[in-house]
Amino acid sequence: xxxxxxxxxxxxxxxxxxxxxxxxxxxxxxxxxxxxxxxxxxxxxxxxxxxxxxxxxxxxxxxxxxxxxxxxxxxxxxxxxxxxxxxxxxxxxxxxxxxxxxxxxxxxxxxxxxxxxxxxxxxxxxxxxxxxxxxxxxxxxxxxxxxxxxxxxxxxxxxxxxxxxxxxxxxxxxxxxxxxxxxxxxxxxxxxxxxxxxxxxxxxxxxxxxxxxxxxxxxxxxxxxxxxxxxxxxxxxxxxxxxxxxxxxxxxxxxxxxxxxxxxxxxxxxxxxxxxxxxxxxxxxxxxxxxxxxxxxxxxxxxxxxxxxxxxxxxxxxxxxxxxxxxxxxxxxxxxxxxxxxxxxxxxxxxxxxxxxxxxxxxxxxxxxx
Length: 370
Hints:
By secondary structure, this protein is mostly helical. It has 13 helices and 2 strands; from the N terminus they run H-H-H-H-H-H-H-H-H-H-H-E-E-H-H.
């Protein structure tokens, strides 16, 4: 079975997304970060809030090309492939949560079950089973059904305050199924931004990407394709933004308005990259990001392992014990350009080092897949 062809515009867009992910995930100090490089506290959508939906969108676009080798036939072999990949990504996510595997730190009574890779796995697995069975028209109807039904579930599940951190149905369901102690605690109370119920609208984000991938795959005229993607993206982003005045844009809840808004913005960006790369042939300026777009999940895992490792190591700084992460920031970056810019420079240094790693893999044609 031959490998599916790769589309440079998708790889480049993925590379830009991963680049932004590295920068926003690795500030020298979370107390010194420029506003756009932070998530919205609850409602709203910053530059950082675009990273995850962009990645899901691009996963959907890639699936259009990857599934060609299966001839859109839901065979037993296909489902085994999907199950294997879904489980492998999910399990790696669990292991990443458990790292560094130090026995005295294992506390399964408070172990977080969900996470970014777990959401990617569930979204991929469910979406794959839909895509292999339904055509574009049917998938569009499924998208509309997902967005409308999720909005209704939020309203019905918590009629008094459906979009609040404390009362939303996403949190209630996760507590019921997984238990409060197994959820993320970064919001000041137990709530998981990669919750089970909010995975449903995440499938909608993937479907939008899949539809855009379909445009790229079937087009005979990239100029026309770029225009259609731009128009489609502008329309759904506008609808999502307007809907946000009723149903707030919210990444943590992955609201339906957020799906349309971020999916629309992603389609616009993909159309612009397609115009530059496939029509104007401006490939060299984007090659830097193409390197980042070829081993994205591997890089997410490696960057996560690195960060968790240096957060675990303790070092002496002016008579106080601090993490190796903080030590690097305080001794190498903060003294040079100050707290805020030092924090940004710390993130950019990680960006450069990880790019060099992926560049080596790119030159060796090493691609690691789960």
